[in-house]
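Dear colleagues,

As part of the handover before I leave the project, I'm documenting each prediction I ran so the next person doesn't have to rerun anything. This entry is a single chain, and its sequence is reproduced below.
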Amino acid sequence: MSLVTLSGVSKSHAAQHLFSDVGLQISAGRRIAVVGPNGAGKTTLLELITGDQAPDEGTITRTRDTVIGYLRQEVAQSKGRSALAEVLAGAGEVSGIGRRMRHIEIELTDASDEEELAELMDEYGRLQHRFEAMGGYGLEAEARRILAGLSFADADVTRDIGEFSGGWMMRVALARLLLQNPDVLLLDEPTNHLDLASVEWLQGFLAQYAGAIVLVSHDRDFIDEVANRVVELHDGRATEYVGDYADFVEQRTERM
């Protein structure tokens, strides 16, 4: 089943025409690499998929309740919480339940009224049951595993994110997205700030990813390891090829 469908999509920026009549089906298990020269509209295509931009012509249909996660080339600097807390915040409702449980634990130590105590215990029991059902107890361990895969040392996990450079903030943003586990994962140049060990770990992680992946990358080896489809934007058109980057090169040569 297609999670996102693009039909007859065209887009221009001011006087610059990017592409016309783009059709694309993004379904679970598809790992699509978008390639093409600079200025062909690769990032624009990702932003059309998210809804950040609207097409000039054509339609983009997203299946109801589909969650789309997007790693941009630039991430906003922030501070005030640890790298681990920032990653866990991406888990949304599960993370929120965990925070409320910790607050109740503090409130329980101060509660003196029996009725208040009973209410807090009742709420805690309900939250704990939901947290357990949603896999919350394994969440922090998974967040730490992802951060370690992206080359964070144990001591760095609890550091304030405001202390990190832009490249390391990008890794935090990537870890947050991977923990979130969206239905459609959009990655714009994900390897730009990664060392070789982190790139290899990410390749392994994405190879097992159950959802759909759409990525923009100049790293041909990375595309070869991750993608099972390639969409080339060239001369205002989008052409889809089945296979990895090597397959794409071979098929394009035959086609030309």
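The radius of gyration is 21 Å. The CA atoms of residues 101 and 128 lie 7 Å apart.

All the best with the project,
I.
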